[in-house]
Design a protein that fits this description.
The structure holds two protein chains of two kinds. By secondary structure, chain A is mainly alpha-helical. Chain A has helices spanning about 10-35, 40-50, 60-70, 75-90. The relative contact order of chain A is 0.05. Classes of the chains: A mainly alpha, B mainly beta.
């Protein structure tokens, strides 16, 4: 081969060059794919960052159990009667606690219990 | 029939009526929880969280007011369910009406089933437009007459009176569900119906209230092993032995009551294969089916999960034949939708009378319609702004990213408190009822 001007590459050499380029492109695309995360997985990562303990128990059962227990409201008659007895000695509380909190930390008194009466008002759709 | 498209031969949807209060402060009891047309479409029933049912009736077409084209006006309203407390289980039972299903009309009266979490009631709605006058034993105001004063007998005469519509509970089907009822479905035999809760499905006879047959029971022996619940169930429109139920895992089981008394083994199992590499924490939650509806033809069924609506051919179990994206742009918002619980919202879906189009709701008071033939879809909004009589609804568009065009709304501006969960399509005409929180919108196709 002469040193002044490169001869045109032979068919063999061309094939080798093309296959090298092709392989390089494959590697690049693979890396790109690994970097592109689906929006759903990105959201999952966000959630895991905020709540690291989520999903360590079987998640399905948690949701389902919560769903099946909807409406559960517990009431302790002992606590209720003691609070009622205390009320007799005190004034009525001035700040009405949140009416929906009748269990848990707040001991309910007759004034707090939500009235479980049906809506006597007619539907506004019929107005 | 079809869906509004761009122009040409497609028709357009127009505002017809809106029912309910305008005030911003919405009482919880006023939130509409179910909407259902009857078989003829002349009656439209709504149920709300306060346990009340309101029935609207379509007015006869009036020659002097051709544009009114059959408006829906209040026909009857009654308190269907009341709040209860189960002292034995410390369980508060909401009065919210979960579902209303009409019975086919067999005489002058109308019958419907309404259910809350625990009790199903059969209501009879009848008209009274005559009153008997001239009783022998009592006066016109009801007081008993002195028998010694009665000297002659007369036959009471029927006189016309102002129309009175009465609703009375004819059957109460109680104490059959440990868990919360999510569906009721009247069978094509017009004699039986099913009720489904999270773990069990019961079969009832409309005449018998003290007994029901359990036909599906998926409660595991050990509750720790619970992995899925029943989310919806429906009878086939023509085959009285066939029903389907959907699950929180995105599967549908078709059962044949002829094969066994307890249909724990399905006849067909519909599930779309999932790409395991795309599985995430949200996968199961968003695949949970919130509604399942057979087509009127009985050949197809439609399921609604959080992001899409799928049409299944009953003859093909391994994947749906059509999938429509309702609001795919929410996929990149799943984290916040999980935090505000919106990811658990249960959207319903419905077919039009000819099964050529389907409709379902979304957020921001948007609702979506898909034409199965042309594959066109449209997003419309139920809002007071576009509530002028016969105003044509303008298609809405959500901008998913990049530059927001003039009339588009960006995903972050959507109001997730304004959700359209319940919609209904008239069985024969292009009239739709859309429940937007405490308001009921009625839209019709454009009158030419």
């Amino acid at each position: 081969m002469s040193a002044e001007s490169p001869e045109p590459a032979s068919a063999e050499e061309q094939k080798v060059v093309y296959s090298v380029i092709f392989n390089l492109l494959l590697i690049v695309f693979q890396e790109m794919e690994d970097k592109v995360i689906s929006p759903e997985k990105a959201e999952e990562a966000k959630l895991k960052a905020r709540y690291p303990h989520l999903g360590q128990k079987p998640g399905g059962s948690d949701f389902l159990r919560k769903r099946l227990q909807k409406g559960q409201k517990y009431f302790d008659s002992g606590d209720y009667n003691m609070a009622k007895a205390k009320m007799k000695n005190k004034q009525l509380p001035t700040a009405a606690p949140d009416k929906t909190e009748v269990t848990g930390d707040h001991i309910p008194t007759p004034q707090d219990l939500p009235q479980r009466k049906p809506s006597l008002v007619a539907s506004k759709l019929a107005g | 029939m079809g869906v509004a498209g761009g122009g040409g031969n497609d028709f357009q949807w127009c505002f017809s009526q809106v029912k309910g209060a305008i005030d911003e402060d919405v009482a919880e009891a006023d939130i509409i929880s179910t909407v259902e047309f009857n078989y003829s479409g002349d009656l439209l029933a709504t149920g709300d969280k306060g346990g009340r049912v309101v029935i609207f009736q379509r007015e006869q077409e009036n020659k002097s007011r051709p544009h009114s084209r059959g408006e829906y006006n209040v026909y009857s309203t009654f308190q269907s369910h009341e709040p209860e407390f189960d002292y034995l289980k410390s369980l508060e039972i909401e009065e919210k009406i979960n579902k209303i299903r009409w019975l086919p009309q067999q005489n002058a009266a109308h019958f419907l089933l309404s259910t809350n979490d625990k009790t199903i009631k059969l209501w009879k709605i009848s008209e009274r437009d005559k009153r008997a006058e001239g009783y022998n034993l009592k006066d016109e105001d009801g007081r008993l007459r002195d028998p010694f004063r009665i000297t002659a007998l007369r036959v009471p005469i029927l006189k016309p009176m102002d129309l009175m519509v009465e609703a009375s509970p004819r059957r109460i089907f109680a104490n059959a569900h440990t868990y919360h009822i999510n569906s009721i479905s009247v069978n094509s035999d017009h004699e039986t119906y099913l009720s489904a809760d999270d773990l069990r499905i019961n079969l009832w006879h409309l005449e018998i209230t003290d007994r029901s047959f359990n036909i599906v029971d998926i409660k595991p022996a050990n509750m720790e092993e619970l992995t899925e619940v029943i989310t919806a169930a429906e009878f086939h429109p023509h085959h009285c032995n066939v029903f389907v139920y959907s699950s929180s895992k995105g599967t549908i089981r078709l059962c044949d009551m002829r094969s066994s008394a307890l249909c724990d083994r399905h006849s067909k199992f519909f599930e779309e294969p999932e790409d395991p590499s795309s599985r995430s924490f949200f996968s199961e939650i968003i695949s949970s089916i919130s509604d399942v509806k057979f087509s009127h033809s009985g050949r197809y069924m439609m399921t609604r999960d959080y992001l899409s609506v799928k049409v299944w051919d009953l003859n093909m179990e391994n994947r749906p034949v059509e999938t429509y994206q309702v609001h795919e742009y929410l996929r990149s918002k799943l984290c916040s939708l999980y935090e505000n619980d919106c990811i658990f919202d249960k959207f319903e879906c419905c077919w039009n009378g000819s099964d050529s189009a389907i409709m379902t709701g979304s957020y921001n008071n948007f609702f979506r319609m898909f034409d199965r033939n042309t594959r066109r879809d449209i997003t419309l909004e139920a809002s007071r702004e576009s509530s002028k009589p016969r105003a044509i609804l303008k298609p809405r568009k959500v901008c998913t990213g990049g530059k927001r065009k003039k009339d588009e709304i960006s995903v972050d501006s959507l109001d997730f408190n304004k959700k359209i969960l319940h919609t209904a399509w008239h069985p024969m005409e292009n009239i739709i009822a859309v429940a937007a929180t405490n308001n009921l919108y009625i839209f019709q196709d454009k009158i030419n």
